[in-house]
Amino acid sequence: MQNSKLMQGFTKFAVKLGNQIHLRSLRDAFATIMPLYILAGLAVLLNNTVFTWIFKGKALERIQYWGVVITNGTLNISGILIAGLIGYQLAKNRKFTNPLASAMVSIATLIVMMPNTVQVIPDVAKKAVSVSAVMPFSNLGTGAMFSGVIVGLLATEMFVKLSQIKALHINLGQNIPPAVGQSFDVLIPILIVISFFAVISAMLNNMAGMNLINLITTFIQEPLRHVGTSLWGTILLYSLGNLLWLFGIHQAVIYSSILEPLLIVNITQNIVAYQAHKAIPNIINVSLVQSFGLIGGSGCTLCLLIAVFLVSKNKAARTVGKLAVAPGIFNINEPVIFGYPIVYNISMAIPFVLIPSLGILISYTATTLGLMSPCVIQVPWTTPVFLSSFLATAGDWRAVIVQLIVVVLGVLIYIPFVKMNDAVVVAQAGN
């Protein structure tokens, strides 16, 4: 009875967390921007591997321009993109009637909070010089992602609340174009929000010689990212996410809302470093977790399917396995989660949570020891096993071997639990 109440309480808390409006908006925004990150990863991969095999000298420089401009239009403006997307998604989740205005306000506010004078190194110089009225990619891109998140949330909340005050509305009547009417309807809230943040920006600059980007990066982004995406922090959060599946709750409640945004920041920094031929800063990132902790889907259930085909004598389990293997190759495993099932199946709890953690630990250790290259390309989460590790590491065949080791170990760990599950099913049928 106590266990049942505990399970119900945990389930209720997890559902409430997953429905939290800010986390949901964050998840939706990053899901929307994901194609751009994948495109950026593809461009960096081609620029630094395939093109270097085919072209040399000036020809290589000309063809690589293609990848450079794609990076500029994706990663290097990701800070302002994520601010706008969060503004849009949060306003939509708040049922606000003009979410596009929220996106516009979020982007404008983030720009307002950026420094007006920056240090840059000209192409022909060795020392940095002060330049005014420019916005470098370092402030627009991955370095501003966390600032974009925070500004997007704060500016949108303020804008939506002010827009609900009828005294601040300007009604031009009905005989005007709808777009014009909507613009004037939120004119005063827009003026207040952007002016308010501009005052904060001016105070930070004049009194402390700082800006919001520096403050957030130094005191919020980096400490949170280092803790959340450390080896044990990642394993803990990812394991908690997989644990939710045992209660029928999608692991995205924790993974997509809390962990994945931090992991995406890490892989974007890796992509930029790889493109610039610099040391790769982050071993733990979204590509490593997905390639080595999402083999066949949550719980590395492709290993489970192989174990079922090897040792299971249960007809229903083998039938589910045949139906689930095709989507499982592309890391889609709802047929296994609900058909085998994993949900509320105590027999599968240990391997389902353990194997993904083991995959992350093994790949982290292999990268640390130099046995495989770090993950520097963001690949789609649906990329099949072996191809995912090869692409994520920019073509390192050793990563495929490491992934194969994880698969073999996963199958061996699942086997005794598959046999146990068969015995439980038989016993339940006998009753």
TrEMBL record:
<keyword id="KW-0472">Membrane</keyword>
<feature type="transmembrane region" description="Helical">
    <location>
        <begin position="252"/>
        <end position="272"/>
    </location>
</feature>
<keyword id="KW-0812">Transmembrane</keyword>
<dbReference type="InterPro" id="IPR051088">
    <property type="entry name" value="PTS_Sugar-EIIC/EIIB"/>
</dbReference>
<dbReference type="InterPro" id="IPR004501">
    <property type="entry name" value="PTS_EIIC_3"/>
</dbReference>
<feature type="transmembrane region" description="Helical">
    <location>
        <begin position="224"/>
        <end position="245"/>
    </location>
</feature>
<feature type="domain" description="PTS EIIC type-3">
    <location>
        <begin position="6"/>
        <end position="417"/>
    </location>
</feature>
<feature type="transmembrane region" description="Helical">
    <location>
        <begin position="29"/>
        <end position="51"/>
    </location>
</feature>
<feature type="transmembrane region" description="Helical">
    <location>
        <begin position="63"/>
        <end position="88"/>
    </location>
</feature>
<feature type="transmembrane region" description="Helical">
    <location>
        <begin position="100"/>
        <end position="121"/>
    </location>
</feature>
<dbReference type="InterPro" id="IPR003352">
    <property type="entry name" value="PTS_EIIC"/>
</dbReference>
<protein>
    <recommendedName>
        <fullName>Permease IIC component</fullName>
    </recommendedName>
</protein>
<feature type="transmembrane region" description="Helical">
    <location>
        <begin position="342"/>
        <end position="364"/>
    </location>
</feature>
<feature type="transmembrane region" description="Helical">
    <location>
        <begin position="183"/>
        <end position="204"/>
    </location>
</feature>
<keyword id="KW-1133">Transmembrane helix</keyword>
<keyword id="KW-1003">Cell membrane</keyword>
<dbReference type="InterPro" id="IPR004796">
    <property type="entry name" value="PTS_IIC_cello"/>
</dbReference>
<feature type="transmembrane region" description="Helical">
    <location>
        <begin position="292"/>
        <end position="312"/>
    </location>
</feature>
<feature type="transmembrane region" description="Helical">
    <location>
        <begin position="141"/>
        <end position="162"/>
    </location>
</feature>
<comment type="function">
    <text>The phosphoenolpyruvate-dependent sugar phosphotransferase system (PTS), a major carbohydrate active -transport system, catalyzes the phosphorylation of incoming sugar substrates concomitant with their translocation across the cell membrane.</text>
</comment>
<feature type="transmembrane region" description="Helical">
    <location>
        <begin position="397"/>
        <end position="415"/>
    </location>
</feature>
<dbReference type="Pfam" id="PF02378">
    <property type="entry name" value="PTS_EIIC"/>
</dbReference>
<keyword id="KW-0762">Sugar transport</keyword>
<keyword id="KW-0813">Transport</keyword>
